[in-house]
């Protein structure tokens, strides 16, 4: 048994029927590179089954403490069945991009069964009419609960089911996995009592570590080395209301060389700055068309991994965050990039002053029962509609492979991302890079973004 951290557990508590808290990806594969030039579903099942030892999340299930008296635990699932987790569907003809986007949105909208290992793979065949994609390709639509992985630890699961060549060599390591018995109610309650005794010490340690950082931030602000102007609340937009049960999905790929050329136009700017600027420009154009653009700039929360070198294989989430203005109030794209770059530098300085790891550690102090109750009440009373948001959207960058990857012998030709939305934050923009391409994907509440293709067009513009 392994207990979830407070940060991981928060994604369990935030889950409601309308806000499933899973992340995922959409990989598109060309089966012509596989042995024999095709891939059957039974081949995929056998291939994934061979790779299960490569990631612990595949066969671990969640066990919640009665009444949420303490954070849940992971155990090795004694009832694991791979056929529950790997599904198979096909698009009707013509099998175009819009059909795929609609199917991905429907799959992503469905909550996962929290009594099973928290992942699902759906193979989608029939991709025969997508520009830039060879006919006959299939997609792998993955869903993994955010309690189990963040963007970086998810690399372990991805690496387990991908090869660097199409030969499909079986893993060398022996599968030594063993299921665990379900813990008793008495055992879980006893563990929660012990942890509650330790909680005051955790408070003191975390607060003690944060005080020097707060002092550094105050000193730097006094000297003008950092600005606190960007720490105010974000403007209210259509993306910051209560969400419904349905989702919209789309993605826009760009050549990485083009993004780097734009980056070079502003000294010191990064690829991430350019992506934030493009998202800002896309949101600006979309809201202008709706006559809903606020005078103040929209902001984005950008997760920051605080995973150390010795924590590369750790389960769950080890992230902090910074909030960056997106320059939606600036028409000129080059000036927008300059502003976003300066704001990102300032936000990083503020986060570093306090300590990104210390900020992440505060999530460990979340009272388990109170967190779940608060999330349910927040949704029930529609509180997201009654206050200004802390940020307007999320932009999360997941670096991908620079070399070709193969799944069951089929070459990956494209990769996109999906993410959770929740009350107060109805759109997320996962950024996935692969080979010479970087793609801005987005997942949104369908009522908030009924015309996903218009936002996609605004990103391209």
Characterization of the model:
By secondary structure, the protein is an alpha+beta fold. 34% of the residues lie in helices and 21% in strands. The chain contains twelve helices and 15 strands. The protein has helices at 6-13, 41-51, 82-85, 97-109, 154-160, 185-223, 256-263, 271-289, 333-354, 356-361, 368-380, 452-460, and strands at residues 2-3, 22-30, 60-63, 73-76, 86-90, 119-127, 137-145, 247-255, 299-305, 319-325, 393-398, 406-407, 410-418, 427-434, 437-445. The strands form three sheets. Strands 5-6-7-2-13-12 form a six-stranded mixed beta sheet, with helices on both faces. A six-stranded mixed beta sheet has the order 8-15-14-11-9-10. A three-stranded antiparallel beta sheet has the order 1-4-3, with no helix packed on it. A hairpin with a 2-residue loop joins strand 12 (406-407) and strand 13 (410-418).
